[in-house]
Design goal:
This protein has 253 residues and is of the alpha+beta class. Helices cover 32% and strands 32% of the residues.
Length: 253
């Protein structure tokens, strides 16, 4: 009888010991599992080449496009400001549009003393580490045609521009224009840009076709696109985004 009690006592002690140990063991297994998942996720998300990641504009574009970044918008409520065009004084010609002509990207033919109307809205982005970026969204009216530009405030570089066929540089292929755009962005030091072109149908208008030209860098995990709308008034959208945000390249950010 005594031996039986001792055996029962030992069994009870083992049950109590195991009941305390099992949750700890399960918790440690779960921790390792979560750790592996986080590690694998980081491995998947981290596609950017180490050297490319050091370039400010590469990091800025990825942070701006990230779903984890917060954004606030300030607008001038659609009011347009009139500016007289002067080759020596025009803000947009000297700071933005003239650079596109200099790099053989686009050419805005603006007559002397013509009026440029513009509207400005700012988008403020902040990532999880509190890095901040500002995109100046500029809407221009030139000769009754509307243009859209997105300017990264620190570098002053155009991250996107909406324009028309008449603004294309003569005798320049689409691929050359896009490669010149990469030079303009100072991203030419990334050496793996690859070009491809596709024709797609519009989802909204059956008659319209879109020509999508892509210049992609695996090292920077970035995509430059030249989207052409072959409608009654051919228009273009030239922009650069992260590869993950490629689909949003078909509308304005």
């Amino acid at each position: 009888m005594r031996i039986k009690n001792i055996i029962i006592y030992i069994i009870v002690c083992l049950i109590i010991f195991i009941s305390f140990k099992i949750p700890k063991i399960l918790f440690e297994i779960e921790n390792k599992s979560i750790g592996m998942k986080v590690y694998k996720m980081q491995q998947i998300e981290r596609k950017i080449d180490v050297e490319a990641e050091k370039i400010y504009l590469v990091k800025a574009i990825h942070d701006i496009d990230s779903e984890k970044s917060s954004v606030a918008i300030s607008s001038s409520d659609g009011e347009y400001v009139v500016e007289s065009f002067d080759e020596n004084k025009s803000v947009f010609l000297n700071k933005e549009l003239s650079k596109l002509k200099e790099y053989n990207i686009l050419d805005f033919k603006i007559e002397d003393n013509s009026k440029i109307l513009y509207n400005l809205a700012n988008k403020f982005y902040r990532n999880l580490t509190n890095d901040e970026y500002i995109i100046n969204d500029v809407y221009l009216l030139i000769n009754e045609k509307e243009y859209k530009l997105g300017i990264e405030s620190k570098t002053g570089k155009l991250l996107y521009i909406f324009f028309y066929k008449e603004n294309l540089k003569e005798n320049e292929s689409i691929e050359n224009i896009m490669r010149n755009y990469v030079k303009y962005l100072d991203l030419y030091i990334i050496d793996d840009w690859k070009f491809e072109s596709n024709i797609i149908k519009s989802k909204n208008e059956e008659d319209d076709k879109f020509e999508v030209n892509i210049l992609k860098s695996e090292k920077a995990d970035l995509i430059v696109t030249m989207l052409k709308n072959e409608g009654s008034m051919p228009s273009y959208l030239l922009s650069i985004t992260s590869s993950a945000n490629y689909s949003s390249n078909f509308y304005y950010k």
